[in-house]
Amino acid sequence: MTLVSALLGFAVVAGLMTITPGLDTALVLRSAITQGRKEAVVTALGICTGVLVWAVAAAVGISALLTASEAAYTVLKVVGTAYMLWLGFGMLRAAFQAKPHDPAPTPTLPVQKTGLPECFQSGLLTNLLNPKVGAFYVALLPQFMPADTPHLLAGVLLGLVHTILGILWLSLLAYTAHRARAWLSRPKTQRLVDGIAGTAVIGFGLKLGLSRH
Question: Is the Cβ–Cβ distance between 76 and 186 less than 8 Å?
Fold first, then answer.
């Protein structure tokens, strides 16, 4: 297997993973609707940076250590579960605290601006605190490691492929959702978005917390 063929083969697998709806999709769509396009793109950058960090970690063996060590995996899983639950319940709180009967001069809610560092941090921690991402890379990367390429270099390049695909796809979602924000940011719709996103994040958190591996 040459380096080029490995990158192309991995791009197909990573592309299918990227377009599959999941926690990353929920976070970016909610950010685009309730905050803005720039915030959503920065959230996507944080998510994809987390993917790249896990890819590099897998290449140097850190993720393999987490997979082999039950204690280390459990600690990271508990922290990741707690973070996702905190994030999800925060979204649900925002949905239920809104006052649907308050008079409004316009049919849309004002954009809830959040600092860009906070958006990046939210996306980054979502992936960094999920040991399943690391376990995935430990299982997948060896299948795309050319024998004549240093493992660290190959891991970085494969991670960059996944990162670029993720940024392109999530940015497209952010742009599309932002274009429809005039309708999506109506009070009732925005509460629905917060409720759905919060429920999805809590669901992913519980799934992670209840998983054995």
Answer: no
